[in-house]
Specification:
The chain has 403 residues and is an alpha+beta fold. The protein contains eleven helices and 16 strands. The C terminus is likely disordered.
């Protein structure tokens, strides 16, 4: 579930984009390995334990173990539940060259968590009567293959059948040759539309960034605003977020962490902090910090910016992968509701467990996979094994075509 570009054996959640983790990039019926979910002992107090110093030490150990194994330079974690306390920690460095420590006030790119903002914007327009979920995309955007049959709902739930632009060979080459260049939404769609559709609308799940580019264009057309302006004004601000931004280019407010990726032309790890995220646009371009990501996670999962009936539509999940359902731009993994994200150099995880009203936000400064798994997934899995052993966050790993 990310904006990622292509890489061989990339971990779940993210990959459909060649260099950015914005998507899964595979249909459900394709072979998939699974991330190990060995059970862990630990303290579950009914649905969620008190975050005591003893539990905090277990969490510290779990996070450090993943860091060491996956060679993650820096990570920050925020975990809390009403009446249970909170756990907020940083580990490692923000800059490998200087050794500067990573801090909770640092901005990070959030990859496909952007999708939750874009879909919220779309659903606000549903509430205003400006669009309907079962409208065909062809009503709003011309030239879409099967555009008279693919609905906005099918785009949001990743069941359109359109080809993922980030898996196109030409796109991968263009992005890796000059990662600082801007892309327009129309250029991104052109990479997709030159390919035949993969299946008929609604037939299966296939994580695809193309879907979100189209929904971003719908938001622009029906709101009369540029997508960045609409999301910043009508989603970010009403949600009470103060350090979250839909950028128009490569701007990256300070303080921010550097970000390390091997999704490069040479295959060597590089710092991607100044890369232009426009290729992710409505699927993965946004920036946030840990406090905002935590706050947004609850807003997204509980629907405070939407009418209750509209939020209910959002949370109607269909099976996407084993143990995982996907609704309208949101997933449910073993009861945890939210999204993950990955862009070259950065990953994020933002999930909420309704039973305990627990919020987990993780941000890290690399997207380099470890044994085929996304490091954000490994952190989510390790943390939830400690606090919610009956709800372990486990996303199936999928391979992405190597090029």
């Amino acid at each position: 579930m990310s904006t990622r570009v292509r890489r061989a054996a990339v971990g779940v959640a993210a990959l459909g984009l060649v260099l950015v983790s914005l998507g899964w990039g595979r249909a459900v019926d394709m072979p998939a390995g699974t991330v190990s979910s060995a059970s862990a002992p630990v303290a579950a107090d009914q649905q969620f334990p008190q975050l005591t110093p003893a539990v905090a030490r277990q969490l510290d150990d779990a996070v450090r173990k993943v860091m060491d194994e996956a060679k993650v330079p820096g990570v920050m974690v925020s975990l809390s539940a009403p009446g249970k306390g909170s756990y907020v920690r940083t580990f490692g460095v923000a800059d490998k060259a200087t050794g500067a420590p990573i801090r909770t006030d640092m901005n990070m790119r959030i990859g496909s968590v952007t999708k939750t903002f874009t879909v919220t914007a779309l659903l606000q327009l549903v509430d205003q009567g400006k669009v309907r979920l079962d409208d065909p995309i062809g009503m709003y955007v011309a030239g879409v293959p099967n555009g008279d049959r693919i609905t906005l709902r099918q785009l949001a739930e990743m069941r359109s059948g359109l080809f993922n632009y980030s898996e196109d060979e030409g796109f991968f080459k263009a992005l890796t040759t000059d990662p600082r260049r801007p892309f327009t939404p129309q250029e991104l769609l052109a990479y997709s539309f030159k390919h035949p559709v993969l299946f008929q609308p609604g037939a299966k799940f296939y994580y695809c960034n193309t879907n979100l580019i189209l929904l971003g264009l719908v938001v622009e057309k029906q709101s009369g605003q540029k997508l960045d302006d609409y999301i910043n004004e009508k989603v970010v601000r009403p949600a009470g977020l103060h350090h979250t931004l839909f950028p128009v280019g490569a701007e990256f407010p300070k303080p921010h962490s550097q970000g390390y990726t091997d999704q490069t032309a040479s295959g060597k790890t590089e710092d991607a902090a100044d890369w232009n995220p426009s290729w992710g646009w409505a699927a993965g371009a946004m920036i946030s910090d840990l406090d905002d990501l935590k706050a947004w996670t609850k807003v997204m999962a509980t629907g405070t910016l939407l009418k209750p009936a509209t939020q209910a539509e959002r949370l109607k999940v269909v099976e996407a992968l084993p143990g995982t359902g996907y609704g309208l731009g949101i997933f449910n993994v073993q009861g945890w509701i939210g999204h993950n994200g990955s862009l070259p150099g950065y990953q994020a995880l933002a999930v909420y467990l309704p039973e305990a009203k627990a919020t987990l936000a993780v941000m890290l400064n690399t997207d380099v996979a470890y044994e085929g798994s996304e490091p954000s997934t490994l952190f989510g899995q390790a943390i939830t094994k400690v606090v919610t052993p009956d709800h372990v966050f486990t996303l199936p790993a999928q391979s992405v075509t190597a090029h």
